[in-house]
Amino acid sequence: MTPAAPPHTYDVTAVRADFPILAREVNGKPLVYLDNAATTQRPEAVVNAIADFYRTSNSNVHRGVHRLSQEATELFEAARTTMARFLGADTHEIVFTRGTTEGINLVAAAYGRANVGAGDEIVVSRMEHHANIVPWQLLCEQTGARLRVAPITDDGALDMDALAGLIGERTKIVAVGHISNALGTINPIQEIARLAHAVGAIIVVDGAQGAPHGHVDVRALDVDFYALSGHKMYGPTGIGVVYGRKTLLDAMPPWQGGGDMIRSVTFEKTTYNDAPFRFEAGTPNIAGAIGLAAAADYLRDVGLDAIAAHEAALLEYGTAQLAKVEGLRMIGTAPHKAGVLGFVLEGIHPHDIGTILDSEGVAVRTGHHCAQPVMERFGVPATARASLGLYNTPAEIDALVAALTKVREVFA
Ligand code: PMP
What we know:
Elements: H1 12-17, E1 25-26, E2 29-30, E3 32-33, H2 44-57, H3 67-87, E4 94-97, H4 100-115, E5 121-125, H5 134-143, E6 146-150, H6 160-166, E7 171-177, H7 189-198, E8 202-206, H8 218-221, E9 225-229, E10 240-244, H9 246-251, E11 262-264, E12 271-272, H10 286-302, H11 304-322, E13 328-330, E14 340-345, H12 350-359, E15 362-363, E16 365-367, H13 372-378, E17 383-387, H14 394-410
Parallel strand pairs: 3-15, 5-6, 5-7, 7-8, 8-9
Antiparallel strand pairs: 1-2, 4-10, 9-10, 11-12, 13-14, 14-17, 16-17
Helix pairs in contact: 2-10, 3-10, 4-5, 11-14, 12-14
The structure holds 4'-deoxy-4'-aminopyridoxal-5'-phosphate (PMP).
The site of 4'-deoxy-4'-aminopyridoxal-5'-phosphate has 14 residues, from helix 4.
């Protein structure tokens, strides 16, 4: 049975009106934006928060006594508090970064180099984005530690028995994604945290796809680090945060040196600032942090549970509709999934799919999605991926399916 379109307890029309870009046309057709896993669009509230900052309070933070500098500092630190609340953390557990990639690199460099040595093991999964693989490979090269990789099942779920078997007394770090950007799989983070903590390891979560699609509470998840990107959660590019458990952050050495991360500098001895400032060398992305906080406020106002329910209904509808397209094979069919519809069409290269969909105004991503080991696992060079956001509608799924029918016609 085909599931009905999502119920309209959620006012998607009102949500769409908050995103001016959704009103534009592409190739003479209404834009159907289904590339949210790559980056989301920004609501007016985020654009305004950034513009307002530049128009009224722009200055550097933390160092000035003048009025504008104080205002900028207050706004920047208020953004930190907003992000702490968004994740259920304390303010001083929030480090601003450029995004998820930098957050994971920070943990690998600062925590990793101080706590991982030769013979130790770092466990990742096969479904990770390259951002949650390469920093650990670099750490292994630097320390002599070994990377272990937990396999995934044929439907794209994490093989939990295999993962449990890999986590042992040598394990120092378990690094997993909350939600796979290539497969949509939602991983059981609490359970993985329990396995890591049972052997005295820490758990680092790549939350790039987790934060925009549902309520994240780092205490309930019991994770040690959680990295996210602003631009995946309707905020700006070039800004993100990494949550770090206070006891761990306090004990970690810095990773980048420069202004703001020090207490005092002499050529004899430099002392470092407290966490989180110790990890934020140089002038930060002030407007970005303010925009990110505006995005978090926006998501809270719309309601993260409501967003998750809307996207789940849309995923169910999309999965059923795509199943009707001749020759389509879904890549990623785990039982616990978020709004990612990755697929291949028999005999047609994903890039050709993407190009023809674009001519119909439908934006999807094609390629390996920075998850080459996933592509290898499923024996495909690339997939086409429609990824859902809070503003997508069943009509847009229908537009995708209609455009795919055109793709089939072109290649018939
Ligand atoms: N992890 C996942 C699961 C992602 O989807 C992405 C972005 N595609 C990243 C990490 C990297 O995020 P960023 O490029 O914003 O640092």
